[in-house]
Write a structure and sequence with these properties.
The protein is mainly α and 119 residues long. The chain folds into two domains: 1-72, no CATH class; 74-119. Helix content is 57%, strand content 0%. The protein contains five helices and no strands. It has helices spanning 3-9, 33-40, 43-50, 63-67, 76-115. The mean pLDDT is 82.
Length: 119
C-alpha cells in the first residue's frame, strides 16, 4: 500500500491490491459515506455493476463503472436513518445466524446422545 492509499483511507482498515480501488467521499459531497456503503450493497447497485463486471471468479469493476452509479441525493438526516437501519438489520441478521448455528449444534449434540454417539 502506498502513502496515498493510506492517506485516503484516513486510518480506516482497508484491503488494497493492484486490482482494488479505495473509495472515499469528498468533503463537498452531498452523500454520507455510510449511505454509500448501504447503497453499494443494494440489488440496485449490484445490477448496475454486474452489467459492466469483468473477471470469472471475482467480479472486477472499473472506476468508470463505480462512478457511473446514479446516487440518489437525499437529505442528510434521511441518509443517516437509512444507514443506521441498514446497520441494525445487518446486526440482527448476524445475531440470528449465530443463534441458528447454536441451536443446530445443540440439536446435533442431542441427536448424537439419542443415537449413542459420543461426540
Amino acid at each position: 500500500m502506498d502513502e496515498t492509499t493510506t492517506e485516503l483511507a484516513k486510518g480506516s482498515p482497508i484491503l488494497a491490491g493492484p486490482l482494488c480501488h479505495v473509495l472515499s467521499i469528498q468533503e463537498w459531497s452531498p452523500a454520507l459515506p455510510e449511505f454509500i456503503v448501504w447503497l453499494l450493497g443494494t440489488e440496485y447497485a449490484k445490477q448496475h455493476m454486474a452489467a459492466a463486471a469483468r473477471g470469472s471468479s471475482i467480479s472486477l469493476y472499473s472506476l468508470e463503472t463505480i462512478g457511473s452509479l446514479p446516487v440518489p441525493i437525499l437529505p442528510l438526516e434521511q441518509q443517516k436513518a437509512i444507514a443506521e437501519a441498514s446497520k441494525a438489520g445487518r446486526a440482527l441478521r448476524e445475531s440470528r445466524i449465530a443463534l441458528a448455528e447454536a441451536e443446530s449444534e445443540t440439536n446435533n449434540s442431542e441427536l448424537c446422545r439419542i443415537a449413542g454417539i459420543n461426540a
